[in-house]
Specification:
Elements (H helix, E strand, L loop, with lengths): L24 H15 L11 E5 L2 E10 L5 E2 L2 E2 H14 L3 E13 L4 H18 L2 E10 L7 E11 L15 E4 L5 H11 L15 H8 L5 E5 L5 H13 L2 E5 L7 H10 L13 E4 L1 H12 L8 E7 L6 E4 L5 E3 L13
Parallel strand pairs: 5-6, 10-13
Antiparallel strand pairs: 1-2, 2-7, 3-4, 5-7, 8-11, 8-12, 9-11, 10-12, 13-14
Helix pairs in contact: 2-3, 5-8
């Protein structure tokens, strides 16, 4: 029991705990109260998933992410394709076409070369599928017992579509909130494999590169205000971050949530809320009501947006908060999680 950890512990711990890496309130507090003061004037106040850089007359998106998923291979993917798709998607959420990636591997002494080769091949295959080049990288090895086989960091640069102005500050009252498909799939896929759970069917991760879907949405001519991929902390954490940044309220309809039966059943068994479970191949879009139908139509014609649906709207009430209308007609607050229900998912 000495090694047990809690992903959402008490918030006054003097040491780093698992909750600090969950993408919820503890992560935000760590950034706000430790990293930003320590960085001082060197820090960019925006601190988003992707930075937008102006180079001459060209706008570039730049992003970096680290992946510590356990186990390394899970139904529907590996840490390798997750590392590529995760950074590709962060770039896509700024309206960018991903171009190049860096890859850095931190390896534990004693890791099987066959297992590493399997991961590396997944990185290469995913990069080819996404149409990006792997242009630089690094490798480090840590002592046995001081890692979990393979950790990966990827950083990427993409070219932003000149028609796009996509950022969380642009969410506004009456915006329609769209999700591109079923939610909670990736987190349940990893957890079922990690814990040896069976739910009567195999739940496979939804990891996929989303820049093609984003390009199809932009091609409609719609003014897309916000795009985000709901990874750590799931849909709930992502919507709370957007609501806080834009100072708008968000009202959801629980009956509209696209949750597969196997995910709903697994979450019920494990005591989890699907809204807080990580996704790796889904996006959330905020668009004006006049543009919602054509954006949805474009999404429905793309393989990764066939189940896209409207799940809510931005409202003037309760700015900075997210609420959901329940199936019974009541309303509940959808809080920002303290930590993460399922740690080490991505």
């Amino acid at each position: 029991m000495e090694s047990w950890v809690c992903p959402a512990p008490l918030r006054n711990s003097p040491n780093i705990v698992m909750g600090h890496g969950g993408g919820g309130a503890m992560s935000a507090e760590l950034i706000e109260h430790l990293f930003l003061p320590a960085f001082g004037p060197a820090a960019d106040a925006a601190m988003g998933d992707s930075a937008v850089l102006e180079v001459g007359n060209v706008r570039l998106a730049f992003s970096t992410d680290s992946f510590v998923v356990k186990p390394l291979t899970f139904p529907g993917g590996t840490i390798g394709d997750l590392a590529v798709n995760g950074t590709v998607n962060d770039l896509a959420m700024a309206g960018a076409r991903p171009m190049v990636l860096s890859t850095a591997f931190i390896l534990e002494e004693g890791t099987s070369l066959d297992e590493l080769a399997h991961v590396a091949q997944a990185v290469g295959t995913a990069a080819m599928a996404a149409g990006v080049k792997l242009v630089t990288g690094d490798t480090k090895v840590v002592d046995a017992g001081h890692g979990d086989g393979v950790y990966i960091n990827t950083a990427g640069i993409g070219l932003i579509d000149e028609r796009a102005d996509i950022r969380p500050q642009r969410a506004t009252e009456d915006d329609v909130v769209i999700v591109s498909g079923d939610i909670g799939v990736h987190g349940v896929a990893v957890m079922s494999c990690r814990e040896g759970l069976e739910f009567g069917t195999t739940v496979a991760s939804d990891t996929a590169p989303l820049h093609g879907l984003v390009a199809a949405m932009i091609d409609t001519g719609a003014d897309i205000h916000v795009l985000r991929d709901p990874t750590r902390g799931g849909v709930a954490a992502t919507l709370n971050e957007i609501a806080k940044t834009a100072r708008v309220g968000i009202s959801l309809d629980e009956r509209a949530f696209p949750i597969p039966a196997e995910v709903r059943d697994a979450c019920g068994l494990l005591g989890l809320d699907p809204l807080y479970v990580a996704n790796e191949g889904k996006l959330l879009a905020f668009v004006a009501p006049a543009d919602a139908d054509r954006v949805l139509a474009a999404m429905h014609t793309h393989p990764l947006g066939g189940h896209a649906t409207v799940i809510g709207r931005c409202v003037a009430e309760h700015p900075g908060m997210v609420s959901a209308k329940t199936a019974l007609g009541g309303t509940r607050v959808v809080d920002l999680p303290i930590g993460e229900q399922l740690p080490r998912i991505c």
